[in-house]
Amino acid sequence: MTFAVKCSLCEFFMMSITIALSKGRIFDDTAPLLKAAGIVPLDDPETSRKLILATNRDDVRLIIVRASDVPTYVQYGAADMGIAGKDVLLEHGGAGLYQPLDLNIARCRMMVAVRSDFDYESAVRRGARVRVATKYLQTAREHFAEKGMHVDLIKLYGSMELAPLVGLADAIVDLVSSGNTLKANNLKAVEEIMPISSRLIINQAALKLKRQAIQPMLEAFSAAITPLTPLSPYPLGAAT
Ligand code: PRT
Ligand code: MG
To answer: Which ligand is nearest to the CA of 195?
Structure first.
């Protein structure tokens, strides 16, 4: 009897899946992919205060976390899988994570931007030491090292666009999507570092132990991905 109970609990554990997601653009773009995999949350994360959301499937639940915390929950196995931006994954480093799919969602670009009146090209030519504010220290460090530029990096947690306006930094490294935030703050993009999209991430141990449950989801996600249309070049240098 005890053995039978233990076994069914154990089977349920082996088959049940926790998916870590962040609210906002990632959730919005993920909902159709989840639906394609037959998963529909029972509450709307935008209006619900619940951090654990049940779904129409007894064996699948969603946890709602900060975008930058998704890889940490998956790395330590508190979630079996999750969806995170490449920006976030580069900063995290990807330890313990399997990254099988680029979902082509929440697309944007990682860019260097400065005040419209700042002559970035001349500062680079002169070898001036440029002060750069960003939330993306790893990515920024690598980018400027590749260019052979000496920069002082200042870590911020948000609203990077403000930094050049109040003299905290000469430049920022931030994500740009429509360009409207740069425009509204009298900034211009001067370099594109890389295109960004969100990836499916899976805990490496969960992939082995729960393959039976994970594999069909992986296939459903994969089939539902919209093919990648290349982003058109972003206008650099011009005050946007
Ligand atoms: O907001 P919070 O501090 O909780 O975390 P977060 O900003 O990391 O989360 P969220 O939900 O805003 O973003 C989640 C993921 O969406 C990011 O990790 C990116 O992979 C992706 N993404 C896609 C973006 C953007 N586009 C984007 N435009 N993330 C942020 N932005 C911001 C950008 O930082 C800038 O402030 O939007 C502003 C620029 O937008 P435009 O349209 O004015 O150019
Ligand atoms: Mg945000």
So the answer is: 1
